[in-house]
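Model: Ready when you are.
Researcher: Fold this.
Model:
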Amino acid sequence: FKARDLWDIYWLIQNNIKLDPSMVVKKIKNYKESYTNFLEIFEKRLETLHDEKSIDAFQNGMLSYVDGREEELVKDKDFVKNLLSTIYPFLSDALHKVEENARYAEEPER
């Protein structure tokens, strides 16, 4: 996951916006990634979401996008840990919803 994607997912959660699985499927297709390969990458990334390397990568990735109060939040490891813990269930649910839509995901773009 890119840091900005994680930040945006956190924003969606904070604003009680529900995940639309078809949007995830479209994102997979935009990356020109096979469904199977995407799921493998997604699952591996989800497993390492809470490790120090992921926290550092998130901080480094976001610092070019934020300033002021948001920059201070991104520099705070406890905030980042909380953000990642908050989005983990959302991402896990997204993974399961995308898996449920496997047939649609493998269909060619129309």
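Researcher: Now this one.
Model:
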Amino acid sequence: PNRTFELRTYTTTAAELDKLHGLFERHSGRFFIKYGIQVIALLTPQTSNEAPTQLVCLLAHESRATAIDNWRSFDDDSRWQQFVREAGVDPSVISQVEIKYFDPTFYSPMK
């Protein structure tokens, strides 16, 4: 069975992006593991007009339905919510993320 891939793009101000990087660097990894979210890559764009304001996450889940359940549990975790508050990240940055789901092609080396 193929996994579902998820591309999440957080767009914010440069100052907020620094806070978001700190939050991800210090805390997100263990929550991703806890809720079954596999991190493929955490990226920033190379283009100068987007680089200072975007964080892009390429993630994998067992299925799209699982992805939705994973994120529901992740977002409801009171400890995660506490870390977001402590990091000073504007909650709208977290809630206004652009999300796209993908299926691997039949010839993709990554499934």
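Researcher: Key takeaway?
Model: The first strand starts at residue 4 and ends at 11.
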